[in-house]
């Protein structure tokens, strides 16, 4: 694989991971909660797409969004809202429990054998007939990630709703005393994260069309690491961290050896190199690679 092709592939993967990081960073920004169940929302959307293969693509995508958003708001009402005053550790354990619950339900319902998604497979075709492969879905992923990030930054910094969201994130109790409908604005932020998760479901299943009960689980773990590396306390730094670790994973996957017998396969080399870089970054910049100098690792915004 040529160097340019490797960089193109890495940029595409980085864009998808950046989009996931936006959703994860948004929830952390308003709830101070690392949502480990985010990958299972993507999995649920992927199963919805797989089960509606015979439908019109638009209908299938609408059902995917409905399923993911419905699960997201159920999590907010049933788990996040009652635990809002609990310690971060308690909320973190709750997201672990939700993650394993959704995986178990998928395993009981569909078993170990996965299902294939046929929706929008045309977007996985390459553009043109040149030597370098650029797929339509990669272009879509880059555009959607950029639009989502810019849109959320404008929402948080230029609108009254964004100001209320930041106020609720800073001090939930005081925000309510000042007249901010804190529950409403936090629910809106969680809703937006669900919309982003559904978007990732559609984009990811175009490339990875075989859906299993642990679908997107590894991707979510990598993105969570990237969010921490980038700087979890700010949406922009978290998103850049997601893109960086996605780009690093894709690039190292292309540059490192791709042959060998188990356990010395390319995946082992990539994982080892990525997490070694993560440790190095955290040692040198504990607050995050893209955090402002002098900023605390969990400073509120």
List the uncertain runs. 260-265, 297-301
The ordered string of helix (H) and strand (E) elements is: HHHHEHHHHEHHH
Number of separate helices: 11
Structural class designation: mainly alpha
**Average pLDDT taken over every residue:** 83
Question: Overview of this structure, please?
Answer:
This protein is mainly α and 301 residues long. The protein has one domain (3-216). It is built from eleven helices and two strands, in the order H-H-H-H-E-H-H-H-H-E-H-H-H. Helix 1 crosses helix 9 (217-230), helix 2 runs antiparallel to helix 9 (217-230) and helix 5 packs antiparallel against helix 8 (182-207).
Structure summary:
The chain is mainly alpha-helical.
Key phrases:
single chain, 301 residues, mainly alpha, 11 helices, 70% helix, disordered C terminus
Write the layout of secondary structure elements.
Layout: H1 3-31, H2 38-51, H3 57-80, H4 88-110, E1 115-116, H5 136-158, H6 160-170, H7 172-177, H8 182-207, E2 210-211, H9 217-230, H10 235-255, H11 266-284
Antiparallel strand pairs: 1-2
Helix pairs in contact: 1-5, 1-8, 1-9, 1-10, 2-3, 2-4, 2-8, 2-9, 3-8, 5-6, 5-8, 6-8, 9-10, 10-11
